[in-house]
Amino acid sequence: MQPVILFDGVCNFCDASVQFILERDRNETFLFASLQSDAGQKLLKEHDVSDDVDSMVLIEDGKVYYKSAAALRISRHLDGAWKLLYILILVPAPLRNMVYDLIAKNRFKWFGQKDSCMLPPPNVRRRFL
Hints:
single chain; alpha+beta; 4 helices
């Protein structure tokens, strides 16, 4: 199965992140599901992910990645120089996740949120579970 990115569907920052990935994933490596969707909930259960997870989650090759590990693993599949960000995986996870957690903690305050998940545009809808 293709790698799946689970994201918070009511978070504007998360939505912008998904749009960013879609624009730079010309090989269509990733599938997407919001954490709130039936498909997202099913994947969380299948992979024993806590119900209260609020970070981006990557499921790749049967393994689950959270926070900065997920973001960096995603970056290595993107077009252009974004692949180079993967070198940050060498930074200890606690340090990487401090930055990730700071953004995650403030994402609604800084970027706002929606009342419901976005409806993907028709040209990419097939990539959403």
